[in-house]
Design goal:
The chain has strands at residues 8-11, 17-20, 23-26, 39-42, 46-47, 52-62, 68-73, 85-88, 93-97, 104-108, 114-122, 125-131, 139-144, 151-158, 162-172, 180-182, 204-206, 209-210, 214-217, 222-226, 236-240, 248-253, 261-270, 278-283, 292-293, 299-306, 313-318, 327-337, 348-349, 355-359, 368-375, 384-390, 395-402, 405-413, 422-427, 430-435, 438-445, 455-460, 470-473. With 474 residues, it is an all-beta fold. β33 and β34 (405-413) form a beta hairpin.
Length: 474
């Protein structure tokens, strides 16, 4: 049996392609490996239409240093850097090349395992899937919202991978509607009892010592009682920062469980607003919060953070911006724990735990916005995955919550831009986090088969922010 040359353009100068036992065999690359030799490219071009589906069955015995590309392209014949395509590279890392934009690497393939890969074109974009059980279960890998136009050709371009392929098919299939596609209204957070003792800063042992707060100072910075420049009551606290902007802060330990979301509020002002000075409200052990801007008038300060450990200390500290030789006034502080369910938007049922889950956070300084997936119960959330953007720390996070206990899986640096996509791709036990098209951290293994549900909801710590559109491609 041989390759049908009436259907396929073949480039194979060193005889690496052969058909045997009903399989296309590729025995690697040239002695001096080069893309597109060997190569198999369809002679017929196919017009891009929604639902056009490519299915490929492959089994790799070696990935080589550079791998192989399998997919679609506008070039006739196809050439290396196919788009869209599957691109297994060294050690089995499976790269997804979308029609345009950043390449992503959602999973790692194994040698000796039969895989099926699928690309489904939709109106403006495509969805990638794979199966490792003969097509009985298709797991999503990626979704893009912009796609190719014109005429596409299909095929394989190899450099040095070794594989067999049982079939390659292109047909008009059905497009699945998004399982979730909604822009939910913001939640209204609710909170528990006040946690601070003397949050009003009224009780002083002396003019420089709060009775219920500890202080931390360095250099010639000082903490002082303020009886004139007040927001309310009889006294406020004045942080007089020295010319070197040395440490100047007060703190108090509160009772709160690990994983809880803690709202810290207060009122602050500064003696001189030159240089846009800042203040921070921070939990001990937490990622640094936002630099909250100060003016020469009292304004409300607000910061919400996740407690990384039980019973954190609450720090009120001079910011790192333009605080030297200035007095910072703080008054009427409050600390409360949010009810987790009240931070969630209305939930939608994705119908599955496997999918490409998206939101588009817009989040103010000091707050967090994201989504929960695989949620068991919206009114009493106990088991779920939680992805969010924290504007203050400049990070994107992925958490797992099992039986109400939070475990941080990923905390990765990002450059926050309002409305950019936050994505979680869940395929079986593998879960990958992306922000603005870039993978954050590594794929995480979480077994969601027991206890977890199929609900999806937005998450935001302040009702003035937005999760954007929640979407689930499954």
């Amino acid at each position: 049996m041989s390759i049908n040359t009436s259907i396929w353009n073949i480039t194979d100068t060193e005889g690496k392609l052969a058909v045997a036992n009903g399989l296309l065999n590729c025995s690697g690359g040239k002695a001096t490996p080069a893309w597109d030799d060997p190569r198999l490219s369809s002679k017929q071009g196919f017009t891009v239409v929604a639902g056009l589906t490519l299915d490929i069955a492959m089994n790799f015995s070696g990935f080589g240093a550079n791998g192989s590309e399998i997919g679609l392209d506008n070039s006739d014949p196809i050439i290396a850097d196919l788009r869209p395509c599957f691109f297994p590279v060294a050690s089995g890392a499976l790269q997804i090349k979308p029609s345009s934009g950043t390449i992503v690497t959602p999973i790692t393939l194994l040698t000796g395992t039969s895989y099926q890969f699928r690309i489904v074109l939709k109106n403006g974009g495509a969805i990638w899937y794979y199966s490792s059980d003969g097509g009985a279960t298709w797991l999503p890998l990626w979704e893009e919202s912009s796609g190719l136009t014109g005429t596409l050709y299909v095929g394989y371009s190899n450099k040095d991978a070794i594989w067999t392929s049982d079939f390659i098919r292109l047909y008009k299939g059905q497009i699945k509607a998004k399982a979730v596609n909604t822009a939910p209204a913001a939640p209204t957070p609710t909170y528990g009892a006040e946690l601070l003792t003397d949050g009003a800063l009224e009780v002083w042992t002396s003019t420089t010592d709060l009775t219920n707060w500890l202080e931390q100072i360095a250099g010639t910075s000082t903490v002082n009682r303020e009886g004139t420049t007040l927001h309310g009551g009889t006294y406020a606290c004045r942080l007089d920062v020295d010319g070197s902007a040395s440490t100047c802060q007060i703190y108090q330990t509160v009772t709160a469980p690990a994983g809880s979301w803690i709202l810290m509020t207060g009122w602050g002002k500064v003696s001189d607003a030159t240089g846009n000075p800042t203040i921070r409200l921070n939990l001990s052990g937490a990622y640094f919060g936002s630099e909250l801007a100060l003016t020469t008038n009292y304004a409300q300060l607000k910061q919400t953070q996740r407690a990384l450990a039980a019973n954190p200390a609450i720090y009120v500290q001079r910011g790192t911006v333009a605080t030297a030789n200035k007095s910072i006034y703080v008054d009427d502080l409050s600390v409360k724990v949010a009810t987790t369910a009240s931070l969630l938007t209305a939930s939608s049922d994705a119908g599955t735990k496997n999918g490409v889950f998206d939101c588009a956070p817009t989040v103010a300084a000091g707050q967090a916005v994201g989504m929960v997936t695989c949620l068991d119960n919206a009114s009493n959330p106990q088991n779920y995955l939680h992805a969010y953007v924290d504007h203050g720390s400049g990070k994107a996070f992925l958490l797992k919550v099992v039986g109400g206990v939070t475990t941080e899986l990923i905390a990765g640096n990002i450059t926050y831009v309002a409305g950019r996509q936050l994505r979680v791709v869940s395929s079986g036990t593998k879960h990958v986090l992306y922000y603005d098209g870039t993978q954050i951290g590594t794929a995480q293994t979480v077994d969601t088969s027991t206890g977890f549900g199929t609900l999806m909801a937005g998450f935001q710590t302040d009702s003035g922010d937005s999760v954007g559109t929640l979407a689930a491609n499954v």
